[in-house]
């Protein structure tokens, strides 16, 4: 993964924020929309693209384009920084391959203890019954 190359492939678009905010919202385009074309990226290898496609499938469009928004700050520049940071974290998390789980065997002492406890509880319950004459 070449971070510099990936960052150069990002496309930013400034949009007017929606919702409440008074007159400032109507005048200033502070919301930033980041788009990243996963399919045509030169900074990722084929294996990385496949891995990201499976991991980020719910966030990708049908054309394999990732779209992220940020309108947390009133500054367009800060929103651009925030959305870029968020994008890089998302990509890094998507590329992490989890370790394979090794199945462990239950120790014999644990099995013996469980059976012993079951017998003990069974005996206690048996002793609670009315005597059979």
UniProtKB/TrEMBL annotation:
What is any one GO biological process for this UniProt entry?
rescue of stalled ribosome
GO MF terms listed in the record are:
peptidyl-tRNA hydrolase activity; ribosome binding; translation release factor activity
Q: Where is the Prokaryotic-type class I peptide chain release factors domain?
A: 16-32
Q: Name one Pfam family in it.
A: RF-1
According to its UniProt record, which protein family does this protein belong to?
Belongs to the prokaryotic/mitochondrial release factor family.
- Protein name, entry field: Ribosome-associated protein
